[in-house]
Amino acid sequence: MSLALLQGPSLRERTTLRLGGTAMAEVVIGCARDCDALPQTLQRLGGTPLVLGYGSNILASDGELPFVVVNPAVMDAPKVVGEDASGVLVRVGAGFRLPRLLGWLCSSGLTGLEGLAGIPGTVGGAVAMNAGSYGCETGSRLVSATVFDVANGVRTLMRDALHFAYRHFSVKETDDVSASLSPVIILDATFRLEVGSRDCIHTVMQTNYAKKKATQPVTAYSAGCVFKNPTQEASAGKILDSLGFKGKRYGGMAFSEMHANFLINTGDGTSEEAKYLLSNAQEKVKKETGYSLELEVRII
Ligand code: EPU
């Protein structure tokens, strides 16, 4: 394998919010060995590296953007790589889609990640933001991850070298280094699951997905929740709803009628309209409640 290179990828087509202009180029990593050529390729292309999986948590700006998309498309299917009294270890490529992983875990009778049903991203993206729902966080089951960064090359890091918090992942030793200078690219992840009943796993996944479908706009163009919850007890969606943001529209962008923490592109929205709505919401929430809502969606 070698690095595949695409010119001028459209971020509108590469993100679930369907917003954004054109990046300079896209570099596709098919396997860990491809990373050997990455530093030189990035240097030659110039621009800022932007690691992008399924693009389900990104609000991309309009116009020509100075980014080189780095796509960790390591598609290795899930595989059992170990088993002991405490569980079964499953390794999977970062580019593998999370819904497919959950389907595989269900048919393999492996329990532990059912709460993630209905999250659309890749495995790498879910680790990179410690995606979570219904009391389950991606990092809670992670045992190790193979990562690449320019300074250290490819290495497999055990969980104690990684830092997970609410919607946050980082490599501990690089916590104080700017991510844009040395992005950490996740290549694969190994999770510890337990053996369970297929029927139970299937039921829990179906129940979680049904709950999600009933309360969140799962088929709309969106990037999931746009703000982090300010505290464990306070839901950003509930606060925004109480302040009248549900359904609030500006141009082609709107806060969802179903869940006020989802920003929706109704089809012809622009990034400027999206940013206007986000800052308008932050200002009003600050003024009325004192909370400073932190973005969960990544604006680039
Ligand atoms: N609520 C409202 N109005 C709204 C939205 C919510 O009144 O517009 C109320 C609900 O009725 C409920 C409470 O607020 O009583 C909490 O709502 P919900 O269960 O939807 O949870 P959330 O805190 O709004 C979090 C995550 C979601 C995750 C759900 C389910 C964040 C920012 N959001 O939402 O994650 O799916 O819990 O576990 O942590 C995401 O990260 O992109 C995301 C969607």
TrEMBL record:
<dbReference type="GO" id="GO:0008762">
    <property type="term" value="F:UDP-N-acetylmuramate dehydrogenase activity"/>
</dbReference>
<keyword id="KW-0961">Cell wall biogenesis/degradation</keyword>
<keyword id="KW-0274">FAD</keyword>
<dbReference type="InterPro" id="IPR016169">
    <property type="entry name" value="FAD-bd_PCMH_sub2"/>
</dbReference>
<feature type="active site">
    <location>
        <position position="167"/>
    </location>
</feature>
<dbReference type="InterPro" id="IPR011601">
    <property type="entry name" value="MurB_C"/>
</dbReference>
<dbReference type="InterPro" id="IPR036318">
    <property type="entry name" value="FAD-bd_PCMH-like_sf"/>
</dbReference>
<dbReference type="InterPro" id="IPR016166">
    <property type="entry name" value="FAD-bd_PCMH"/>
</dbReference>
<dbReference type="GO" id="GO:0008360">
    <property type="term" value="P:regulation of cell shape"/>
</dbReference>
<dbReference type="InterPro" id="IPR036635">
    <property type="entry name" value="MurB_C_sf"/>
</dbReference>
<comment type="similarity">
    <text>Belongs to the MurB family.</text>
</comment>
<dbReference type="InterPro" id="IPR003170">
    <property type="entry name" value="MurB"/>
</dbReference>
<keyword id="KW-0133">Cell shape</keyword>
<dbReference type="GO" id="GO:0009252">
    <property type="term" value="P:peptidoglycan biosynthetic process"/>
</dbReference>
<dbReference type="GO" id="GO:0005829">
    <property type="term" value="C:cytosol"/>
</dbReference>
<feature type="active site" description="Proton donor">
    <location>
        <position position="225"/>
    </location>
</feature>
<keyword id="KW-0131">Cell cycle</keyword>
<keyword id="KW-0573">Peptidoglycan synthesis</keyword>
<dbReference type="GO" id="GO:0071555">
    <property type="term" value="P:cell wall organization"/>
</dbReference>
<feature type="domain" description="FAD-binding PCMH-type">
    <location>
        <begin position="19"/>
        <end position="196"/>
    </location>
</feature>
<protein>
    <recommendedName>
        <fullName>UDP-N-acetylenolpyruvoylglucosamine reductase</fullName>
        <ecNumber>1.3.1.98</ecNumber>
    </recommendedName>
</protein>
<keyword id="KW-0285">Flavoprotein</keyword>
<comment type="pathway">
    <text>Cell wall biogenesis; peptidoglycan biosynthesis.</text>
</comment>
<dbReference type="InterPro" id="IPR006094">
    <property type="entry name" value="Oxid_FAD_bind_N"/>
</dbReference>
<dbReference type="Pfam" id="PF01565">
    <property type="entry name" value="FAD_binding_4"/>
</dbReference>
<keyword id="KW-0963">Cytoplasm</keyword>
<keyword id="KW-0132">Cell division</keyword>
<dbReference type="InterPro" id="IPR016167">
    <property type="entry name" value="FAD-bd_PCMH_sub1"/>
</dbReference>
<keyword id="KW-0521">NADP</keyword>
<dbReference type="Pfam" id="PF02873">
    <property type="entry name" value="MurB_C"/>
</dbReference>
<feature type="active site">
    <location>
        <position position="296"/>
    </location>
</feature>
<keyword id="KW-0560">Oxidoreductase</keyword>
<dbReference type="GO" id="GO:0051301">
    <property type="term" value="P:cell division"/>
</dbReference>
<dbReference type="GO" id="GO:0071949">
    <property type="term" value="F:FAD binding"/>
</dbReference>
<comment type="function">
    <text>Cell wall formation.</text>
</comment>
